[in-house]
Design a protein that fits this description.
Layout lengths: L6 H13 L4 H8 L3 H8 L8 H11 L3 H11 L12 H16 L3 H23 L2
């Protein structure tokens, strides 16, 4: 296993902090974290924080919160889904995907699902461009 599984997220926040000439203390203070925790995040030792904290971190670092959130989600070993207000079909889909992952989703199944979701997304984007 990679000794630093959170490297991409870590590199982004370290690079941006340095670009802004911020210290570890500046970020720690803004996030109400300890300096050692920020250092561990930047070294890829700690997993990215919860997503609502990632958005605040993006504000402090003046970077796109969606990009940073995306990188945090890719780095984490877990995925958070907010199902508040979701309909029964959406909740059922989330539970079924969770079960398939727990049961052992094959690489082929994962690729087919990913392609299906991308096709749905691309179709939505195409519809938005139609006048």
């Amino acid at each position: 296993m990679n000794a630093k599984p959170y490297r991409v997220f870590a590199d982004i926040i370290r690079r941006r902090r340095k670009e802004l000439d911020l210290t570890l203390s500046d970020v720690a203070e803004g996030m109400e974290w300890s300096v050692p925790y920020v250092s561990e995040l930047e070294r890829g030792v700690k997993q990215p924080p919860p997503l609502e904290r990632v958005e605040l971190l993006a504000q402090i670092l003046q970077i796109d919160p969606m990009m940073l959130r995306h990188e945090a989600e890719l780095s984490r070993r877990t995925v958070e889904l907010d199902l508040e207000g979701a309909g029964a079909t959406h909740r059922q889909l989330a539970v079924l995907l969770h079960r398939r992952f727990q049961e052992g989703l094959s690489e082929d199944e994962a690729l087919r699902l990913l392609e299906a979701v991308r096709q749905l997304r691309d179709g939505e984007e195409d519809e938005q461009h139609v006048v």
